[in-house]
Amino acid sequence: MKLASKLRQLALICGAMLAQAGLAQAAGITPEPIPPRYGIPGDQKVIQAYADTNDVGAMRNHAWRIWEGLTADSKSIYEGKALPIWETWLATNQVFTNPPQSLCETCEIPASYQALYEPAREFKAPHQFSHGAALLIAKPGKQNPGGLVGFNKFDPAEVKFLWTPHQQNGAAFNYTSYTDLTNLNATWPDSTKMQDAKIIGTPRSSIELKPVLSFVAAKTLTAIPYWQGPQASTDAACANVNVEHLKHPSGRYNPSNCHPDPTTWTNCILVDAANPTAALRAATAAEFSGANLSQAAGCTSVSNAQYVGIDSLYHFKMTAKEATDFNNFQDNGQKVASAGDSMVLVAMHVNTKEITDWTWETFWWQAGQKTPDNYPGDGAGRPKTLAAPWNNYNMCASYSQTTKPGNKGEMNVCFNPYLETSGGIPDGIRSNCTTCHGTAAFNQPPTGGYPLSYAQPVDFNSVQYFLCSTQTDFSYAIQGNQANAPANPPAWACNRK
Ligand code: HEC
Fold first, then answer.
1. Which residue's C-alpha comes closest to atom 38 of ligand 1?
2. Tens digit of each residue's pLDDT, the chain (497 residues)
3. Residue 358 and residue 260: Cα distance in Å, rounded?
4. C-alpha 457 – ligand 1 centre gap (Å)
5. Closest Cα to residue 13, out of 192, 125, 124, 162?
6. Does any ligand 1 atom lie closer than 6 A to the CB of residue 450?
7. What is the DSSP secondary-structure string of 150-207?
8. Across 371-476, where does the E strand assignment appear?
9. What number does the ligand 1 atom closest to the CA of 420 have?
10. Is 414's C-beta closer than 6 angstroms to any atom of ligand 1?
11. How far is the CA of 126 from the centre of ligand 1 (A)?
12. Cα–Cα dist 294/271, whole Å
């Protein structure tokens, strides 16, 4: 690693440790938890009751509070503006690749390095689209529909948890280490039930994020795909889907083969970076013919296109490095972005450890408009106090696999139109966050991977998913981001009887 980048890592990591120790910093970016006024984490019993009684309104109100807290101004100023709280958090590489033990002895950062601070934005194609077994069974999907990039972020409490060794089965294990997880997995007595072989749960204030970004050119109007339901897609398998059936998955209907990923959406919004405050309206023919449609291949008619200024979305200008990272993850090697172009936030997955199986909510840009058929969610209950541009996002929330406790009742459906519509995710438009994340386990058997159908909940004692493995508290990040993981892991083997 080059010295400058090593120092930057050190500054960021030590900054996070100082923040956790409650020490003030003169400048730079300090990871900051959601301020207490938002009431996150809330009362565990109260929130669990929302899930158990399937009180969708209460779950949604709670999810909006989380969103308000995540997007509130932090104390960190970057390029003249306060960063939202979530932007101050550390991302995967900082948390997993360079845990502080190896880098930070005293955590005294020379003042001259403060200027090196910048928000943690690790542009990659969401790994979710190409995850393990999913590829073998799903419809072949684009690796990176519409050139989306995404990454993961972790709140300060979870980072501290991940950097602390945990006592289990008579020894201490660090969950950012592949060796430690391998050793932990070997300590379970043969008699351990699969549902009991798991890491120690993360603290109740833990929050994980997956922000998803698209690109908008500095000078050319750039089309961003606009969700109008699964039928507003060029995927022929979506033409005859019945949204009511999709909202209520059951054994009566087959898993859906419709994959309306954003490149197939027939609607788009032309986003103008040069007139940031321009109001939403229909696009003109001249605007449409001059627009960059590279991320919205399915949007072929001006009658399906709207126009808006870039302030409708959360956005920031790309550095040269970010533009290169973005270009590196384009499907067909398009070099669309350069320094000074913008990234816009189109979607964000959020989960909080306020309840045992986590709360799950996901937000996507709907330009302040309605989502057709409220599928998979809508803007209902959005607080009037929510500041722009965050009030232009719609949302769904689901805090359990099923509508009744104990895996009884109907399956809940909640997904993000920008993400789980991918061809890499089986039955994604009927999916449930808890069900898929519930299968996250270290050393998962080859029969594991994504659920093939969301007609029924996952059983945490299932041999298919959990034989001889250690469940990672619904976290895919903990399942597979360890820096010291071997390039060619040994073949899966089971020594437990
Ligand atoms: C089909 C499986 C699947 C479904 C359904 C799914 N996810 Fe994920 N999710 C993943 C995988 C795999 C990762 C890790 C790789 C990545 O980030 O792309 C992940 C990552 C995340 C992360 C980053 C932290 C972590 O655990 O790695 C969050 C937050 C998240 N998902 C939230 C959600 C929410 C909220 C929903 C429902 C709206 C959801 N997910 C639905 C598979 C899924």
1. 415
2. 344 444 444 444 444 444 443 333 445 778 889 999 999 999 999 999 999 999 999 999 999 999 999 999 999 888 889 999 999 888 888 788 765 544 333 333 333 333 335 777 777 766 666 554 333 344 444 556 667 888 899 998 898 888 888 999 999 999 999 999 999 999 999 999 999 999 999 999 999 999 999 999 999 999 999 999 999 999 999 999 999 999 999 888 999 999 999 999 999 999 999 999 999 999 999 999 999 998 999 999 999 999 999 999 999 999 898 888 888 877 666 778 899 999 999 999 999 999 999 999 999 999 999 999 999 999 999 999 999 999 999 999 999 999 999 999 999 999 999 999 999 899 999 999 999 999 999 999 999 989 999 999 999 999 999 999 999 999 999 998 887 888 888 899 887 86
3. 27
4. 17
5. 162
6. yes
7. E--EE-HHHHHHHTS-EEETTEEE-TT-HHHHHHHHHTS-TT--GGG-BPPPPPTT-E
8. 393-397, 402-404, 408-411, 441-442, 470-471
9. 5
10. yes
11. 9
12. 13
Ligand 1 atom nearest 439 alpha carbon: 2
Protein residue closest via CA to atom 40 of ligand 1: 433
How close is the Cα of 79 to the center of ligand 1, in Å?
31
Distance 273 CA to ligand 1 centre (A): 30
Distance between CA atoms of residues 404 and 410, nearest Å: 7
User: Whose structure tokens read 């950062």?
Assistant: 109
Does the C-beta of 158 come closer than 6 Å to ligand 1? no
Atom of ligand 1 lying closest to residue 415 CA: 38
Single-letter residue type at 406 = G
The reply to whether ligand 1 has any atom less than 6 angstroms from the CB of 425 is yes
Instruction: From the CA of 127, give the closest atom in ligand 1.
Output: 18
Q: Which helix (H) or strand (E) holds 138?
A: none
**Ligand 1 center from residue 293 Cα (angstroms):** 28
pTM summary value: 0.92
The neighbour count for residue 58, using CB atoms within 10 Å, is 18
Is 480's C-beta closer than 6 angstroms to any atom of ligand 1?
no
- Token pair, residue 199, equals 């890491």
Biggest CA-to-CA distance, the chain: 70
Q: Ligand 1 pocket, 198 CB below 6 A?
A: no
Q: Whose CA is nearest to atom 41 of ligand 1?
A: 433
